[in-house]
Design goal:
The complex is a heterodimer of chains A (521) and B (115). Chain A has 521 residues and is mainly α. Chain A contains 19 helices and two strands. In chain A, strands 1-2 form a two-stranded antiparallel sheet. The longest helix of chain A is centred in the last third of the chain and has 40 residues. In chain B, α1 runs antiparallel to α2 and α2 packs antiparallel against α3. Chain B is built from three helices and no strands. Classes of the chains: A mainly alpha (521), B mainly alpha (115). At the A-B interface, α5, α6 and α9 of A face α2 and α3 of B.
Chain lengths: 521, 115
Amino acid sequence: MNLLNHTPILIIAIPLLAAFLLPVIGRINKKTTGIFTTFVLSISLILTILLTVKILSVGPQVYVFGAKSPALTLPSGLKFPIRIMFQIDAMSIFMGLITAVISFVGAIYSLTFMEQHSGLDKYYSLLLLLTVGIFGIEFTGDMFNFFVFLEIASIAAVALISFRGVNLGEPVEAGFKYMVVSSIAALIVLFAVGIFYGKYDLLNFAALASVIKYSQLDKIALGLLVPVLAMKAGAVPMHMWTPDAYSEAPAPITIILVSASQASLYALFRVTFSLYNITLNTLSVGWIIIILGLLSMFIGVTMAIIQKDIKRLIAYNAISQTGYMLLGVGVGLAVLANPVALSKYGITAMEGGIFHIINHAMYEGLLFLTAGALFFRTGTRDLDKMGGLAHSMKYTTIFFIIGAAAISGLPPFNGFASKLLIYESVYRFNPLLSIIAMLVSILTLASFVKVFHSAFLGPKLPKFKEVREVPRSMVWAMVVLSCITIFFGLFPDLIVKNLVHPAVMALIEQFKYTGTVLGGI
Amino acid sequence: MIGNLPYIAVIIFIGLGIYTLMFKKNLIKIVIGICLLENGVNLFLITLGYRKGAVAPIYTQAPSGQSMVLPTPQALTLTSIVIGIAITALILSIAMMIYKHYGTLDTDQVRRLRG
């Protein structure tokens, strides 16, 4: 048996198995749970990189559960797939790569950040389950399986958000909100799955995509799916859970939650591009997504400027950055039916949007980790109470500058590269959208100047006399993310050509998506 | 007409669920709203697979020529019910924790996170 053929399932199976082994390991030795988790997630990361190389060189991969061979999608005599399967193309693996890196960094950071807490075996089990859920959302090729993974991710996320709830009230409040939002979202997704099943007797994404007609029922299903997936991704006006959940979760969990929100964003793109593609009225649906994006960008950043809690401020900025991705990909969707405009600026806009996803995960993760580092040493998230921390926390200050410059789109960091792609392509679609996007970028910088000024600058405060630099594992976690941030900023061409462009083409070319399952490309 | 009765029940369930979620201020009632929504969706799935006069989908024991109800929606519903139990248990335990910290279940008073 060649294990390499089973990489797609191993990426998920190894953390899943480890999640249930962890309580046992915790019984024997409490200290090793964190190291074990990091080890498991590093295996997942290596496997994801291997799979990425394979997919980018060979093409999309299918993994069918319970079949004689993992690539056997259609057993003899059948016209449509009946088994559950993973279908991983360039877009899925692009998201999978983000999840793998972010969860690995989160585990490293947790090693010292969570050291003082009790119940660490449960914490790490849930962390692994959350990662499994996100991977599943990104890899699955089956509608119902998608619902199941969505629920796995939300249950684990809720338990992690309210992890500090034993002593505090706020984390459980945030957890309750997140649970209500995500269970409603998941149930409505299930309802839409029911509609598809009732109409076409199919659950497989690719098989559905090949027969979908955009009739009245399909419109209802689309109308159910788009808002709830946008809600799970944290787009305005369904964003109320985002700042609460992001700010109350422990910092390493927050960065994985960002990845979870992006997985919903991925599902939104998958539904609109791979499932419906040009059968739907691309211009109007595209504009709906663009308007969601604009609202998220603008309201997110204006709310961010007035925040006093550092993590809430960054969380509102996360909403605002989600708007850029929706804007870029929305423009791509709006011109999808128009091949001339698509090749002129549609593809570039989508490249900008998709590239922004990976950039966002990296610098937003970095910013949340620096906020966590400040909280770890000062015990507060209130910007009014901080000050002069640049004297004692030199590394954290540098990491914060890198993250803040990247999120505001300053060269040579990665935010600049993707935002420039969005600006120049969106300008050709509608100049006003591009101007708003630039304005939002300036406001983002303003909000981070405020954080930098009140937390890091100023004289050394007597109450923070004892504050030292954070322990090594936290510094290394931030080093990884800032290296990626700088690398992507210096060589954007390399990333766009090798990772982002295949992902965009995987979204646009629906026949390839259906072809990998149904054959006959 | 009578065959559509389950769908009307689905609409009533989901409508009541959404009404409860939107207008009730008690955390436990919000949980009940989610349960109603979930039951509506489960009923919808199971109704999709129903065929009039069909037998249970056990291949080896079905009389030949008799039509069977669809097994897939039943499998989906079973999974969905199991997930629903996990969610209800978790969310109720969170409501319990909120009551412990805030001393109330009223959503107007459980509002320390704002802005």
